[in-house]
Amino acid sequence: MTTHIATQLVRNNIRNTPAYKSARSGTGNSEAYIFLDAAENSISPFQDEDGFTPLINRYPDPQPAMLKDKLATLYDVSANNLMLTRGSEEAIRLVLQTFCEPHQDSLLTCPPTFALYDLETKIQSIGHVKIAREGRYYTKLNLNTIKNTLNADDENVKVVMICNPGNPSSTSVDQDDMRALLDLCRDKAILVIDEAYIEFAEHESYASVLSENKNLVILRTLSKAYGLAGLRCGAIIADDLILDYIARVIAPYPVPRPTVETALAALTTTRIKTMQDVQATLKSERDRMVKALQSAPHVRRIFPSATNFLTIQVDDVEETLQKFLRNHLVIRDRSSAIANAVNIAVSDADTNDKVIDLFS
Hints:
This protein is α/β, with parallel strands linked by helices. The chain contains twelve helices and eleven strands. The protein has helices at residues 5-9, 12-15, 65-75, 87-99, 115-124, 143-151, 175-185, 240-246, 257-266, 269-293, 317-326, 349-359, and strands at 82-85, 106-109, 127-130, 157-163, 190-194, 216-221, 234-238, 299-302, 309-314, 332-333, 341-345. The strands form two sheets. It has a seven-stranded mixed β-sheet with strand order 1-7-6-5-4-2-3, with helices on both faces. The longest helix has 25 residues, at 269-293.
């Protein structure tokens, strides 16, 4: 019987370490119990006349079932294949902590890409192999170099991480290249696809091929498309054995109770439909902005965005940044990753008109 790819790649100390379990594990945090196991203060500070008594004096469920089920339905996956995290940033750290041995193993990325990937390799003292994307808009992968690197014993690549749609490029990787990458990584490395912006793309989530790819990890977040960046709530979608290993690394109570309660309130059928309408509006506004800016002075190129922001190459980045600041608008300098580029988030129509006017 072939050993599961996750078992082959997981760090030895993680493989041999059980996940943290509290005394109440298995009780479902039922109201039928009085919990005296975790030295919590049984008296909440919120005992006021208004009847506001949130249970923040009690630890939350490590993986709240109601929110897991809600997100599993939203993302069209099994709840058994989903783990809640404090945003995608925590998920990135957890995957690397689980599979990459410090001073020994490496992460492979394809820049331009999310800057946090590189920062995490430095924090965790792991190697970082960078194989640049190709094409005018960074939509192609250098598959031959990736293949050779995965086969090179001295690189010790354990995890491949692709931001798709891309940040800061705003573009999606060619789907044929993504399928080829899935094949290249299947028996070689954990493949993480960071889908923070997937709701704004034309292609589907790669979670649809999870069952055929036991090494695949999908990262999702409520920050972008659902307007909940302040909650810090995200999800790892993966094979249950991968999640079992990550559960040995994650904090005992990773998602605060107020986050869970607010997320559930935001994910009612009505509010989901409202935010999906907002997503459609943002895509329409994105396309309107691109059309308006195509021939604007000092705009060299606008990337074909699959996100809720635009990547624009300009004549002078610093001059553009200062012009926007003088008009009380903050945009992002991306010239260290993409020459002469800035990122500008798509907003409401009035704000988008201000952006268009500033380029006129």
